[in-house]
Design goal:
By secondary structure, this protein is mainly β. It contains nine helices and 46 strands.
Amino acid sequence: MKKTSYHYFYLFLSLLFPGFLQAQNLAKPVLFNQAWSFHKGDITGTAKESDNAQWQTVDLPHDWSIQQPFSNEWASATGYLPGGIGWYKKTFTADATWQGKQVFIYFDGVYKNSEVWINGHYLGKRPNGFIAFQYELSPYLNYKGKNTIKVKADHSDFADSRWYTGSGIYRNVYLVNKNPVHVGLWDVAFSTPKVSPQKAEVNVKVNITNSTKSTAAIGVKVNLIDNAGKIVAALQKQISVKPGSKQVEFEGQINSPRLWDVENPSLYKLRVQLTRNGRQIDVVDQHIGIRSIEFNKDKGFFLNGKSTKLKGVCIHDDAGALGVAVPQEVWVRRLKILKEAGVNSLRLSHNPHADYLYDLSDRMGFLVMDEAFDEWELGKNKWVKGWNVGTPSKDGYHKDFKEWADRDVNDMVMRTRNHPSIIMWSIGNEIDYPNDPYTHEILNTGKNPQMYGKGYLPDHPAASQLTVIARQLVKAVKAVDKTRPVTAALAGVVMSNEVGFPEELDIVGYNYQEYRYPEDHKKYPNRIIYGSENGMATQAWAAVDSNEYISAQYLWTGIDYLGEAGKWPQRSNGAGLLDLAGFKKPDYFYRQSIWANKPMVYIGAREVKKAEDRGIWSHKSVQPVWNWPANSKMRVDCFTNCQEAELFLNGKSLGKLSRSAAKGKIPSWEVDYEPGELTVKGYNNGIQADSYTIKTNTEASNIKASADTTMFAKNTKGLSQVEIQITDKNGNPVFDAENVVTVSVNGAAKLLGLESGSTSSHEGYQSPVRAAVHGRLLAYLQTSGKPGKITVQVSSPGLKTSTVVLTVK
């Protein structure tokens, strides 16, 4: 919701200064997450008659699906977890100071088909589970007694998505209290028509709502404030606002602006103040960035006039054990790790994401593709028994597309349009997937790397409809924002070219079709082409790196995710650079070697006969392990961005190799295995820049537990992410350890879940007991805000227990 800031500023400060939100006057938006009641299952009768059901107390965000057992009675597409129907309610007292004002409830996301009541009055329904929305409560509030909000979420169509979506009120909820004359939801629009290092032209549009019955004389003041608190631009106007709404526009200039970019994501505070009769009646704060973007058909992408390759990853909403009810701190950790790999761009697949993720992208320097849909008017295949196995489900958003698509796109863009991180709007992912469902005669010829069935299917809908709907959605986007290009990620470029779909877009994303870049660049000279979804293979990046006109690659994926699984027992997808726990996989280090600037080096071993780089879905299999059978002939591969790498076995050099001369720029050695210590050193200009060591471990003996945060403020919840590593007696990681680990918590905190990174484990995520994978686990501990010490013990039979102490004060 940062987009008209009401809460984004406060949300971020809540991490930096715990308790900040709770300390605010209720005239400001406040989190409304605590002490809800939840009932799993439907309730007969109307919302007024639901009070006899069994309810449990929950805090939001809440995802009920992740709390259920995995079962093959559900769908592989959505992680073999159930959907169903759930009800929420919350009883509260209306503050006397609210009288005469407008009180709203804002939901950042409810999956799905949400319906909301206040004191028995029906407020509305929102089918799309990824779209934020709000309702006004004021007309129905009771100031002499209690008030009750009730929310129904209906996810009965459990196989309604190609990935795990979760169920319930899985994002933050806020109360917003406004005077009758105020800045409405998402009603501030900021843009920078011209930007240079010397000066920036800024444009601010403010839409003011007047809910009274008379014209109001309003003073509107707009300030831009730098991070030192200095006002660098001050604009103001006096206007008359008749009942209804009125837009006022400001134009200004900032000299020597601090430009936002991926290395230095400088932000300003935009403050909009309304006054009436000399009294402030509304204030809206949000953070904005000053930057310019340009996509060029021949030269690629430019940020602030500088040519920039988009080193991107696709990400879904979930975080394994937590489902989609993910605390902000989890994404802080994940994004930091991705940033270290050289990632500078995120594709938010395939739906709008949680409010805080856009704020983090602004602050951490990620360029963002915000995406609306995975299907339009017709349903795609959602596999139930594994990818391309059996009969797919056709349930999904398409049932509501005709009625809601334009509004959903409008709200997506309005909500996040002021974020400097966002550089493009995507109206759809693989809507043109051949024969799923659209088809065309051209499918009988040519190369189509992704296709359902074989060739043209005359009983399927014609692909020409893609162009009609694309035109509609592009118009909806540009009705709100013309400062960014509109795109879509195409799976069936051959087919789409025949019907003019790409011509409706400003820039055209190609999924897994690098081979088409040269041909289409020549055939369609005015088309701006980039890679919108790509595999991990070396040649996929080479197609970007060697072609000036190709600006981007978005790897599928940055992080493993629930759903889009194969046959049971697999219930998650393992395509990521990071696993479900956020632990680095070998592919992470390889990507770091070609994307990151900071010197790095990594080694892993595999049997000599094992092949690599097997096409689109190729993944690096070299693991940081030096425990092998005697007399084994091993291949040691080195991922590095250093000029040279030298390998040492037990202190003896096995040779120095040039990265540029190595096949695939991966220095490799064939090594006769002997136990001990294997070290690689990376050199730039003959000077050691980095090193990496793996050691032969003995049997598992100890547990090492380390928390990313151990100190917390009182009166607010906090999250500690505890990494658990099984080691030998010398502290060396034991890669093949699968010990069953127990996490015990003593104090005012609770274990939210344990994550091993396994894509096929069916252990309950809320259990304090879980088997390690590669000797590791991640524990999520949530503090309650009560002052005191919290002791976290990590134990396993036969291993030395480890203890972590958290402090709340």
